[in-house]
Amino acid sequence: MQDRPGPDIVAGNRLMIQGDRHYDYDAFGNLIRERRGKGHQLVTEYRYDCQHRLIGFTKPNGQTASYRYDPFGRRVSKTVDGKTTEFFWQGDKLIAEHHAERHRSYLYEPESFRPLALLEGYGPQATTPYHYQLDHLGTPQELTSPEGEIVWSAHYRAYGQIARLDVGKIDNPLRFQGQYFDAESGLHYNRHRYYNPDIGRYLTPDPVKLAGGINGYLYVPNPTGWVDPLGLSRCPGEDGCKSQAGVEEPADTAKINTGEPNQPTVTTRPTEFANKQKLNEHYEKHGPEFGVETPNEYLLTARHVVNEGIPINYLYKSKSTTGYVLLMGTNRTGQAKFAFAGTNSAGNITTLHTKSGKDFWRVINGDATDKTITPYNQ
């Protein structure tokens, strides 16, 4: 992902050193400083608000930028060297931007984050349409005029950095689905976070914590087949990012092309706790095991385990019960550590906790020596 010589040093999933660049973080894990050059004298500093949103930065040459957000956390303006650009939204999709010299609108494919057209100018008489030509991920490869002329064309590296700009008669800020390129910083604004395509990482940890995966700074495990339109959770492309639990999620509208479609299947998985009291009780008891801070975060983590985990059938109080297990890593003694979500006959989540060692195998198989996971065909 990088052409700079030197080692990559990562601690606690935080990139500390890459080549000649050193990275500093605050107590919340937000990147606050990038140091490079002789004696680390070239410093870029990042500033955040109380909700860990990037509100500004200062580059080594003194250039500054500041960002503002609405109550929903969407970026509504940025000011660079005294010039302000305003942004307009429809839900989680950027539909227009405006500053004193230019107005642009963006159209998308129906129920998708895949861009369809860019409209440059004011009103129907003064607007010039340009059409996006996308790859299988929904990433713009070209922009074409109504006459078919290619006015913008680029080649990318795997994690979204432009390797070669072939045609640049106009500029195009859209990158991976849901990402907007900021020329002043080189970062991609990805709705809830900022993404650095040079290193394939976000500046801040995932706001949904473990619901977005074990590594909170990771974009996606496979950038050539997955997308993350909101900067919240990875989105596997094989199922078009549709939730297996049947829950409407904004990221469900992200789509990629993977060839011939599979035959449609219907799979319903639990999405809610049996009741609020049970949710609160189990959050108090097991929330610290997942590093979550609210019952809602605990619920989101449980949904993630149910959606991504392996369904199993096990005996609980002599009754056949369905649960979901997801490998988290290893515990301090090197044993496999699993997230375990239990359900009841009504199709509700009843608990979420971690299990490892003999206790885990005894629960799912009734035998601590039987170390196999047999998926339950629902």
What brief labels describe this structure?
378 residues; mainly beta; 16-stranded antiparallel sheet; 4 helices; 39% strand
Care to describe what's here?
- Residues 255-268 have a biased composition (Polar residues).
- Residues 130-164 form the RHS protein conserved region domain.
- It comes from Pseudomonas paralactis.
- This is RHS protein conserved region domain-containing protein.
- Residues 241-268 are annotated as: Disordered.
- The protein has 2 domains: 8-209, no CATH class; 276-365, no CATH class.
- 10% of the residues lie in helices and 39% in strands.
- It has 378 residues and is mainly β.
- The strands form 4 sheets. Strands 1-2-3-4-5-6-7-8-9-10-11-12-13-14-15-16 form a 16-stranded antiparallel sheet, with no helix packed on it.
- The chain is globular, with a radius of gyration of 23 Å.
- The protein has 4 helices and 26 strands.
- It has helices spanning 123-126, 276-286, 295-308, 357-365, and strands at residues 8-11, 14-18, 21-25, 31-36, 42-48, 54-58, 64-69, 75-80, 83-90, 93-99, 102-108, 115-120, 128-134, 140-144, 150-156, 162-168, 180-181, 188-189, 194-196, 201-202, 226-227, 235-236, 310-316, 319-330, 336-343, 349-356.
